[in-house]
């Protein structure tokens, strides 16, 4: 990657003559870049208006063949969140909101390829949800460590809705810590994956 | 969902007294909401600086257990894009850039659950890539309709890198058309999935 270009991308604001669209892009890039895992939350609730904005962003995600083979449940009642946590060791703190993101098998054929692609769309919807949360001062993380069957029973999910990810979200109770990451040149290459540099 | 709250979210700008953070959130929400599928592109190339900004956003995606079991190849050489298209009926127009998003099986154990979760992280990274593109006036879409083996051979991908999604991106050559979507109340519920409303 071009280090100089990356340094420019990392600077705070647009220079003179930059178009409005570019300025808007810079802010969105900043939100995407600074999102981080949040596992510990204040007890401030997530209100209806804020939740609706997250759900709207979520449903704008790409959907393969526009099948929208997905379903989402927003859980905020403290007693239900408490029970969910009992089946989800991946939820560490006590969040005011848990999104339950499901694949809807009733909207797929039996083709396992389609099933896999449907899961990818659910993941993209969850990322939209997390970005919309971070943009508004909330944080969370996708959790795959949970027991699907008890969760289905607890939430009255019909058999064709498979919970794929739980997403606890709330106001972070401490500053975001960026996750250490592999060097970009280890995971991104251009044009051809040279066999002399095993990934 | 609360219709009134949603209408407020849909308005253009923050009212008086809204904090900076909220204003920033409104812009990011707008980028997320207005992203759409782009399948037809002008022949304007995607420059290094712009590509780097997309890649940086992409690598900021969540990663389960921070394994980063992913690898990405950015293809811009027109002849290589042309060959890629021959194996990818899902790529309709002629894009100036194709991202090849891969799962890295060398960074997973044999646990099939981890393999699936790794795919979800790649999907979230692709969504970041697409949002960063849309924020800067580009567009694209995730493509799963391609022949993985010829793509691996063409790009010199080692066996442990499985191409999961191809992502053509470029400057849209026509206005974005929003995809028709299922009614939100069909796919989102609160607290409990009532069995009297089959999803």
From TrEMBL, chains A, B:
Top-rank taxon = Bacteria
The organism's taxonomic lineage, starting at the top: Bacteria, Bacillati, Actinomycetota, Actinomycetes, Kitasatosporales
Q: Identify this protein by name.
A: Nitroreductase family protein
Residue ranges of the TM segments = none
So what family is this one in? Belongs to the nitroreductase family.
* Cofactor(s) needed: FMN
Q: Could you tell me which residue ranges the Nitroreductase domain spans?
A: 32-85, 116-171
Organism name = Streptomyces catenulae
Pfam families for this protein: Nitroreductase
The alphabetical list of record keywords is: Flavoprotein, FMN, Oxidoreductase
């Amino acid at each position: 990657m071009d280090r100089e270009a990356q340094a420019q991308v990392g600077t705070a604001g647009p220079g003179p003559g930059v178009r409005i669209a570019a300025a808007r892009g810079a802010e969105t890039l900043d939100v995407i870049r600074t999102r981080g895992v949040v596992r510990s939350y204040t007890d401030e609730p997530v209100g209806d208006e804020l939740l609706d904005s997250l759900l709207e962003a979520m449903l704008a995600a790409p959907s393969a063949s526009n099948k929208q083979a997905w379903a989402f449940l927003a859980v905020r009642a403290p007693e239900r969140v408490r029970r969910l946590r009992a089946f989800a060791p991946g939820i560490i703190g006590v969040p005011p909101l848990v999104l339950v993101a499901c694949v809807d098998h009733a909207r797929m054929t039996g083709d396992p390829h389609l099933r896999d692609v449907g899961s990818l769309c659910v993941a993209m919807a969850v990322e939209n949800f997390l970005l919309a949360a971070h943009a508004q001062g909330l944080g969370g993380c996708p959790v795959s460590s949970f027991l699907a069957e008890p969760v289905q029973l607890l939430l009255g999910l019909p058999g064709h809705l498979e919970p794929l990810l739980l997403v606890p979200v709330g106001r972070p109770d401490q500053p975001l810590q960026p996750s250490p990451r592999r060097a970009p040149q280890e995971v991104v290459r251009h044009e051809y994956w040279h066999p002399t540099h095993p990934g």
